[in-house]
Design a protein that fits this description.
The complex is a heterodimer. Chain A is an alpha/beta fold. Helices cover 34% and strands 26% of the residues of chain A. Chain A has helices at 2-5, 65-72, 95-105, 121-131, 137-149, 165-177, 195-212, 223-228, and strands at residues 23-34, 37-49, 54-59, 80-85, 88-89, 106-109, 183-187, 215-219, 231-236, 239-243. In chain A, the strands form two sheets. Chain A has a six-stranded mixed beta sheet with strand order 6-7-8-3-9-10, sandwiched between helices. Chain B is of the alpha+beta class. Chain B has two domains: 3-52 and 283-415, no CATH class; 87-270, no CATH class. Helices cover 54% and strands 18% of the residues of chain B. Chain B has a six-stranded mixed barrel with strand order 3-4-9-6-8-7. Chain B has a two-stranded antiparallel ribbon with strand order 2-10. In chain B, helix 2 (18-55) packs antiparallel against helix 9, helix 3 crosses helix 8 (247-261) and helix 9 runs parallel beside helix 12 (380-406). Chain B is elongated, with a radius of gyration of 32 Å. Chain B starts with a helix and ends with a helix. The chains are: A alpha/beta, B alpha+beta. Chains A and B meet through helix 3 and helix 4 of A and helix 1, helix 10 and helix 13 of B. The structure holds adenosine-5'-diphosphate and magnesium ion. The site of magnesium ion (MG) has 2 residues of chain A, from helix 2.
């Protein structure tokens, strides 16, 4: 990993962007209590991400990447610190508002796909639509369009165990996209895939980013994947060890 | 998310583990089944006892000798304590009631001789002989199956004619036609002129094992016909009021006449007792009510156990499905949506279980009824009660697990292995 660290400059030479970031985290901490011991997973992370960026978060296992991404995705709450999404303080939101953020604002892609095992690809993709209040034929049509977009137009009625790993991850991506969020967060999306399939998934992400202008944050420990993004943030022991500056818009 | 979608998700989840859902439901099925079955037995017993009480006569008011209290005793003493040192009832009392209490359907005194020997040829039985008047048939709802009831001439002439209860007729005659045959009551010969319709044992003995003779004949042939003062004794006086509403008036008027007859001073205790059917009904009602309550409580406990079973399984299910719940929350399910999903699941379980339980309970009730030992009556009330109770159990025991599920942080759930 040492050699990997040297690949990137440690200070920024770019001027700071002047427009408002879509994600602005200031001094986030996260402490897990396990009985008597406390695990400081995040110890003061500040981070800004602008609309339309494609950012990789890297770092060693246990450095706090997943913890950070979960907080950014409103799946978890920080112990302290401020997190503004589109200018709104997420820490101040109630349960229903958080649910709405998860439903409409952010699409989350997991390493382990996390599909409902007993539901078809179509039903899995339609799930966020149902929770958003849209169900029935319209939802199915939208879900089918999304599955077609990710190249699974002919697998609508397959269940997860009838699909390959790469196909399952495509279903998960379609699910993340279906409510047209402006941000997609992906936690090691290729971690459970072979390298060829991982490449396909990355290509899909890049296409979505390029063609739809989706803000993309990908957690990875694969340098090859990190290299495909526009900007890298590296965590170490719950702190930002290093962050490339955003390019001016 | 509308209810039907939730219901669909719930059904899906329940079908995903059919064996477990079935076993969970079994608790509710047995609980609801026993509520319905046991209540049907309680209701059946209540109905048959009420039926017996009303079958002894229409709007009946009964006068007995001495102070008699109704108690819940064993059937052989009919719940009536017979007093000792009191003035007996006489036919004069009966006549006074008939003459001085207006607007009655009928007054029917009876002279009862228990343990009377009745014989036909070699056949000999010990039964109750009852000396009765013409009105007795109307007052006590006696119906004739064969032959005829007494006519005025029988009583006037003190004719030696007898009417047998069906069991007595059977015992004496077997398959033979008893009409016109000569039997001996005590030592006196009687001609059988009729056989009554069976009504079964009830309060005041079993008419089916009795022999009826005209009251005037009874005074000549039965040994206990005279009181110590030589008056003509009656054992009991049955009075039929014109309507149920009129019973209280009749009761009061009869008591007044009786106090005058027996010369009881103001404030002194009665030496007779006036009983109404209502009193029997309410005593029986309170006994069978307790029985039904008791059976219901036993059944209720099994339903409660079934409910705890549901809660247990739902808690296991929440833990098992942490990942699924977390995922649902991660893609935007709200707290109350998850709450609803799990509540709908438990309620679906308990409703399906409840429906099957009702079928089971009705089946058991029919089966028990078919044995002929106990009457069973499935009432709509008991079914509604069972449904309401099982729904309440589902909701009550579903809330805690559902709340647990709804409160899961999406991240805990997604990380859960
Ligand atoms: N639920 C948890 N309870 C306790 N400790 C946790 C929990 N989740 C993560 N951690 C700890 O927090 C640290 C950061 O974890 P994580 O964010 O998953 O790291 P990464 O994704 O970079 O591998 C690790 O030390 C991990 O053991
Ligand atoms: Mg991780």
């Amino acid at each position: 990993m040492g050699e990997f660290t040297n690949t990137y400059p440690t200070t920024s030479r770019e001027p700071e962007r002047s427009d408002a970031p879509i994600i602005e985290a200031v001094d986030l901490t996260k402490v897990y209590k396990m009985g008597d011991t406390e695990v400081h997973a995040l110890r003061g992370v500040s981070l800004r991400i602008w609309k339309g960026e494609m950012v990789s978060i890297i770092g060693q296992s246990g450095s706090g990447k997943s913890t950070l991404l979960a907080i950014l995705g409103a799946l978890d709450v920080p112990t302290s610190g401020s997190y503004k999404l589109d200018g709104r303080e997420v820490a101040a939101m109630n349960d229903d508002q958080l649910a709405e953020i998860r439903n409409q604002g952010i699409g989350f892609v997991f390493q382990k796909f996390n599909l409902l095992a007993r539901s078809t690809a179509l039903a899995n993709v339609a799930l966020p639509l149902a929770y958003g209040g849209l169900s029935g034929r319209q939802a199915n049509q939208r879900a089918a369009e999304m599955l077609t977009l990710v190249g699974l137009g002919d697998r609508l009625d397959h269940r997860p165990n009838q699909l390959s790993g790469g196909q399952q991850q495509r279903v998960a991506i379609a699910r993340a996209l279906v409510n047209q969020p402006s941000i997609i967060l992906a936690d090691e999306p290729t971690g459970n895939l072979d390298s060829a399939t991982g490449k396909e998934i990355m290509n899909l992400f890049r296409t979505l980013h390029r063609e739809r202008g989706i803000t993309l944050i990908i957690v990875t420990h694969d340098p090859a994947i990190a290299a495909q993004s526009e900007r890298i943030v590296r965590l170490k022991d719950g702190l930002v060890e290093y962050a490339e500056e955003a390019q001016p818009a | 998310m509308n209810f039907f979608r939730n219901f669909g998700i719930a059904l899906d989840a329940l079908l995903a583990n059919k064996l477990r859902s079935g076993l969970t439901m079994l608790g509710i099925i047995i609980g609801v089944g026993s509520v319905v079955a046991l209540l049907s037995i309680g209701n059946g017993v209540q109905e048959s006892i009420n039926g017996q009480i009303t079958s002894i006569g229409t709007n009946l008011v009964t006068v007995l000798q001495g102070q008699v209290r109704l108690t819940a005793g064993p059937p052989n003493n009919q719940g009536i304590r017979t007093p000792t040192q009191t003035k007996p009832l006489t036919d004069a009392d009966s006549n006074a009631i008939r003459d001085r209490v207006p607007d009655l359907l009928g007054v029917a005194p009876e002279l009862t001789a228990n343990g009377t020997t009745v014989a036909f040829q070699r056949e000999k039985i010990l039964i109750t002989a009852r000396g009765v008047t013409l009105d007795y048939a109307a007052v006590r709802n006696v119906e004739i199956a064969q032959g005829r009831w007494f006519d005025p001439a029988d009583d006037e002439r003190a004719a030696r004619v007898a009417i047998l209860g069906p069991d007595a007729a059977d015992a004496l005659f077997g398959g033979l036609n008893p009409i016109g045959q000569t039997i001996r009551i005590g030592s006196a010969p009687f001609t059988v002129i009729g056989v009554t319709v069976g009504v079964g044992a009830g309060f005041a003995g079993n008419p089916d094992t009795s022999v009826f003779i005209p009251l005037q004949t009874a005074y000549r042939t039965l040994s206990n016909a005279r009181t110590s003062t030589g008056a003509r004794r009656v054992s009991v006086i049955y009075i039929s009021a014109l309507s149920t509403e009129d019973i209280p008036r009749v009761e009061r008027a009869v008591a007044e006449v009786m106090r005058q007859q027996h010369g009881i001073r103001e404030g002194a205790e009665d030496d007779f007792t006036v009983l109404t059917q209502q009193q029997f009904l309410s005593i029986a009602g309170s006994i069978t009510g307790i029985l039904t309550l008791f059976l219901g409580a036993i059944a209720g406990i099994s339903l409660l156990v079934g409910g705890i079973g549901i809660m247990n399984i739902m808690l296991v299910s929440v833990t098992e499905r942490t990942k699924e719940i977390g995922l649902r929350k991660a893609v935007g399910a709200k707290r109350r949506t998850i709450l609803m999903q799990f509540l709908v699941e438990t309620v679906t379980l308990s409703l399906i279980g409840g429906t099957l339980g009702i079928l089971l309970g009705v089946g058991v009730a029919l089966l028990v009824g078919a044995t002929g030992i106990i009457n069973t009556t499935v009432t709509l009330d008991s079914i509604l009660l069972a449904v309401t109770f099982s729904l309440a159990v589902g909701l009550f025991f579903g809330i805690y697990p559902a709340n647990r599920a709804a409160g899961l942080q999406p991240i805990e759930a997604v990380r859960y292995e």
